[in-house]
Amino acid sequence: MNWSFSDLMKHKEPLHFNESLDLKKDLVNRVSEILDVSLIKVDGYAIKDRNAVLVSAHVTGKIVVPSSRSLQPVDLGLDFAINEYYVAEGTNLDRFESTETVLPVQDDQIDFSKAVADNVILQIPMQIFSPDEESGKVPMPSGKDWEVVSEQDEQEVQTKQVDPRLAKLKDLFKSEDSDLK
Q1: 15 pairs with which residues across the strands?
Q2: Who's near 54: CB < 8 A, 6+ residues apart?
Q3: 54, 92 contact by CB (below 8 A)
Q4: Where is this region: Disordered (predicted)?
Q5: What is the pLDDT, as a whole number, of residue 111?
Q6: Terminal CA-CA length for the chain
Q7: Residue-by-residue DSSP string for 56-123
Q8: What are the tens digits of pLDDT across the range 16-43?
Q9: Angle at 51 (CA atoms; ends 46, 102), nearest 5 degrees
Q10: For residue 141, what is the DSSP state?
């Protein structure tokens, strides 16, 4: 999905696009954790907006990544929007909000396939679990002298444990109560 910036600036009407991209080779080469990528469907518009081109698209697809816990393949559905402004180099950017994505165009070409691939990578969460791992149906990994414990289980154990240095204080108040009676 390459477009000429100058051609898009000449368009009076929005340019509609609806394409399926094969980004598997690019994504697998860029991110070693990605095991597989389905065709990525991109549906959107490129719209001239004063001295910029706004590309607004809806992206859907699926990637396969390893579980953070078991390394088993997990399907990760993709469904997100991209809104990016493309401007000629040297354009004053004051009119854009700080939260908007504004990219300078180099050599009069907009490579939106690269933008889609970049945004797919940004959609990968830090921790990924299979549905069974999330529901607790699969036991946590363990081995000889070690085990993986969830944060919730660890907090429960810590709240039940009493610091041995403070255990004697518990008996101190019992003896004072019996003296008062």
Answers
A1: 46
A2: 46, 47, 83, 84, 85, 86
A3: no
A4: 132-161
A5: 92
A6: 87
A7: EEEEEEEEEEE-TTT--EEEEEEEEEEEEEEEETT---TTS-TTSEEEEEBTTEEEHHHHHHHHHHHT
A8: 999 999 999 999 999 999 999 999 999 9
A9: 65
A10: P
Instruction: Give kind and range of the element (H or E) at residue 19.
Output: strand 15-21
Single-letter amino acid code for the residue at 124: I
Distance of alpha carbon 28 from alpha carbon 140, whole angstroms: 28
Tokens of residue 99, six digits: 């939260």
Q: Please, are residues 18 and 39 in contact by the beta-carbon 8 Å criterion? A: no
3-state secondary structure of 173: helix
**pLDDT, average across residues 152-166:** 73
Q: How many CB atoms lie within 10 A of CB 11?
A: 13
Q: In what helix (H) or strand (E) does residue 8 lie, and over which residues does it extend?
A: helix 5-10
SS3 144: coil
Q: Name the pTM for this structure.
A: 0.76
Residue-wise pLDDT for 112-142, tens only, equals 999 999 999 999 999 998 888 888 777 777 7
φ, ψ dihedrals at 35, nearest 5°: -90, -35
DSSP structure string for 48-63: EETTEEEEEEEEEEEE
